[in-house]
Specification:
Keywords: Methyltransferase, S-adenosyl-L-methionine, Transferase. The protein has helices at about 15-45, 55-65, 75-90, 105-115, 130-140, 145, 155-160, 180-185, 210-215; strands at about 95-100, 120-125, 150-155, 170-175, 190-200, 225-230, 235-240. The protein is of the alpha/beta class. A seven-stranded mixed β-sheet has the order 3-2-1-4-5-7-6, with helices on both faces.
């Protein structure tokens, strides 16, 4: 993670700032445990779950969900602050977050949306009930300046996002790579002209993103693509149908 910007662009109550600081610290402190978990899985299962997607994306996603059930896997703080600024700059009011985990980046999205429109909403998705419960705890702790702008959809996001989306101004893809392209295609008909899609770790996980990147980089397609040099890469894509 790059050094967080100073001062932070985020405007929120001291209570929320303290919460975010604590959650980012917990996520960073957990990084060695995440790496150890993956290394142990490789040794035990004789394969790397992050590479399994090449021939069995469904099993890869299942294994990774199982391994990371109690892990933050939170978006880096500098990326969260960039997202916050991006929502402000675009005036986004309708945001979909694919992959909520413990709800850290969701807080940034909700704070930014609240400045754009009191009718705005972040539709967050999370498959694992235990993670969804933790996310709700964090949003409840943040209070009304955050919680009332979030709608959490639990379950398989390829099902929960099939309906109930009128339009999407920004889509955050922070999920296992086998799900990224199917999620974009599920939401694509709801994207507004000029909508922004953000995908995390597109440099470090380039192999897993291959089909997705081929799709959004098609010169004949409706997307304009740029890779930003954040840690492990951050893809920013503009939808121009």
């Amino acid at each position: 993670m790059a050094a967080p910007s100073s001062p932070s662009p985020v405007r929120a109550s001291p209570k929320v700032i303290d919460l975010l600081t604590r959650l980012h610290k917990q996520s960073i402190d957990q990084d060695p445990e995440v790496n150890a978990t993956l290394n142990s899985a490789i040794e035990l299962r004789k394969h790397d779950p992050t590479e399994l997607h090449k021939h069995d994306p469904i099993e890869s996603t299942r294994e990774l969900n199982e391994l990371m059930l109690d892990k933050f896997v939170a978006l880096d703080q500098d990326k969260c602050e960039f997202l916050y600024q991006l929502v402000l700059a675009t005036g986004a009011k309708h945001v979909v977050e694919a992959g909520t985990s413990f709800g850290v980046s969701t807080i940034y999205l909700a704070l930014a949306i609240s400045e754009n429109s009191k009718e705005g909403k972040v539709i967050a998705t999370e498959k694992e009930a235990s993670k969804a419960a933790r996310a709700r705890e964090h949003w409840r702790e943040a209070g009304e300046e955050v919680e009332k702008y979030i709608e959490l959809r639990e379950g398989d996001l390829l099902e929960t996002l099939k309906s109930g989306l009128e339009k999407v101004d920004l889509l955050l893809l922070d999920i296992w790579t086998p799900l990224v392209l199917p999620t974009l295609k599920t939401v694509q008909s709801c994207l507004t002209p000029g909508a922004v899609i953000v995908a995390d770790n597109t440099i470090s996980s380039a192999a897993g993103y291959a089909d997705f990147l081929s799709y959004v980089r098609d010169p004949a397609g409706p997307f304009r693509n740029l890779t930003l040099p954040y840690t492990n890469g951050l893809e920013v894509i503009v939808y121009r149908p």
